[in-house]
Design brief:
Number of helices: 0
Oligomer: single chain
Order of helices and strands: EEEEEEEEEEE
Structural class: mainly beta
Radius of gyration: 13 Å
Helix content: under 10%
Number of strands: 11
Length: 123
């Protein structure tokens, strides 16, 4: 199983980025898949997830700004990030859970992880 993120970069406050995560070795349409981020010196935190019924969940800090989506034929997960803030800076990881439904944002629910893509938002 392999998850490969792309699309990170450096943007100014208010800018946008679209992250992609290509999944191979498993069918992401059958799993809860999600995005997490980790700022320097901090623990990995959830951002958003989406289940097999395309029901998406977001943490409060990104609601209204970020959108998670899937392209099932391409086995690819996306994260559209708008109105970026400095506090959005961090390494962004995609992950695939054990389950088809997204029961929680618990890291322990996610068994496969990508290597991450860096997002830096500067003022």
């Amino acid at each position: 199983v392999r998850l490969v993120e792309s699309g990170g970069g450096s943007v100014q406050v208010g800018g946008s980025l679209r992250l992609a995560c290509v999944v191979s070795g498993l069918t992401s349409s059958n799993r809860c898949v999600g995005w997490f981020r980790q700022a320097p010196g901090k623990e990995r935190q959830p951002v958003a997830n989406i289940d097999v019924n395309n029901i998406a969940q977001y943490v409060d800090s990104v609601k209204g700004r970020f959108t998670v989506s899937k392209d099932n034929p391409k086995n690819t997960l996306y994260l559209q990030m708008n109105s970026l803030k400095p506090e959005d800076t961090g390494m962004y990881y995609c992950a695939a859970a054990t389950f088809s439904r997204c029961y929680s944002f618990a890291i322990s629910d996610y068994e496969h992880w990508g290597q991450g893509t860096q997002v830096t938002v500067s003022s």
